[in-house]
Structures are given as C-alpha cells and as structure tokens.
Amino acid sequence: MPVAIITGASKGLGRALAEALAARGWDLVLDARTAEALQEAAAGLRAYGTRVTAVPGDVTDAGHRSELVTAAWRLGGADLLVSNASALGAEPLVRLDVLPLEGLRRALEVNVVAALALVQEALPLLRASEAGAVITVSSDAAAEAYETWGGYGASKAALDHLAAVLGEEEPGLRVWAVDPGDMATDLYAAAVPDDDDPRPAPSGVVPAFLRLLDQRPASGRYEAPALLEGRR
Predict the structure, then answer these.
(1) Distance of alpha carbon 47 from alpha carbon 84, whole angstroms
(2) Active-site residue identified among 10, 139, 152, 155
C-alpha cells in the first residue's frame, strides 16, 4: 500500500484528506500538536482497515520530524508528503504595522522552514517511491494582497517558491503547491473570528487533491476550484 505523511492531520483539511486516502487503502503517518485530537482522528481512520501511525508533536522540532519519517519507513516508505500544518502569526490577524515579529517568525518557522526540513528528511524515501509526490498547502493570500494577511501570506508565498524550485530540482517527483480556496476551518476562524459567512467544508476540496494524485500533472502551483472544475 502507498504511504502518506500528513502534517496538521487532526482536523480540517488534513483530516479530510487523510480520510480520503484511507478510504483508498493508503497507510498513513499523521502529525498534529494536540495528542488527544490526533489519536481520535487516527482511531477513526483505522476503521478503513489501513495502518495509521499517529505522531503528536511540533513540526518545528527536528526530533519530531525524524519520528515522522521513521514511522513512514516502518510502514514501507513514503509516497506522498503533505505539508498542511500552518501558523497564522497572529490570532486574530492584524495589520503589518502591529504584527508581532515573534508571530511572523513563528509563521515562517512552521510554514516554511519546517516544511522544507521535513522534505529534506523524507527525500530519500520519496525518491525511492515509484510515484513520489510532495503537496504544500498554499493560500490565495500567497498571491493576492489582503489587509491583515501580510505575515501569513508572505510565509505561504515563500513556501510556494520553495515548492517551485523543488519541482525543478527533483524532476523524478511531483511537487504541487495547492491553494485550496475558501474553507470553514479552525485556522480561518482564528484568523478572522468576526467573519461568520458560510464556507465550504474541507472535504469539499479533497477531490481536487485526489485528482492531482490520479492524473499526476506537472509540478507547479494549482488552485483547487480550478481543479474541481476540470480547468487544470
């Protein structure tokens, strides 16, 4: 069975994608900071009959990243790495003139540095896979200027560029940066708590990610709404 490492997998998009892969028979290595929520998610996913290893911890910790890759190796390797764990930099989001620099550093450390470090750790397994792939979860804030989204958007723009370069440097892999579009997630609620407009559930955009895995288009940046509409 193929093996996926998914960060930020206890809820939201990470959990929804993990469930879709489990339904397809994938074995999973899951990460999240909250152990109880992660174990609960893992228990639910094991009902699909796949092997699920839950490794609670912080992706910024080198030892934790090594644990994730070791867990994948024990399951047989790594065919997919999904960098979904994210930090906002401030909750709720604030304008750049008052953005705490420590918050910006945290966003860059989680969203960019840790994502690259985990890729580096997992590369030997991904290269050994017949269909190795990396997915970095992006945001429209990486490409568009929205008030208060400067720190988070800057971190996601940096992640997009790393993914683009990785795709050039690793032609044997597929490296996709994916903007999932609007979703009802705890991350968005923390970012803009006063916005109670209805948004799609994360499960609604998972088919876009599955399309990438099924069709394996060229490495690059993709938008989930366009993938769902068949435009890319």
Answers:
(1) 23
(2) 152
Phi, psi dihedrals of residue 83, rounded to the nearest 5° = -90, 95
Residue 232 has pLDDT above 70, yes or no: no
Q: Please pick, among 10, 83, 86, 138, the residue that the annotation labels catalytic.
A: 138
Prediction pTM value:
0.96
Tokens 């193929």 locate to 2
Burial annotation 55-70 (CB, 10 A radius, 16+ → b, else e) = bbbebeeeebbebbbe
Cβ distance 177 to 222 under 8 Å? yes
Q: Would residue 188 show up in a list of annotated catalytic residues for this protein?
A: no
Give percent above pLDDT 70 in the chain. 99
- Can you name the residues that pair with 178 across neighbouring β-strands? 137, 222
Q: Would you call 219 a catalytic residue per the annotation?
A: no
DSSP for 15-60? HHHHHHHHHTT-EEEEEES-HHHHHHHHHHHHTTT--EEEEES-TT
Q: Which tokens belong to 112? A: 């960019």
* Catalytic residue flag (residue 11): no
16 CA to centre of own chain: 11
Per-residue model confidence as pLDDT tens digits over 185-201? 999 999 999 998 999 99
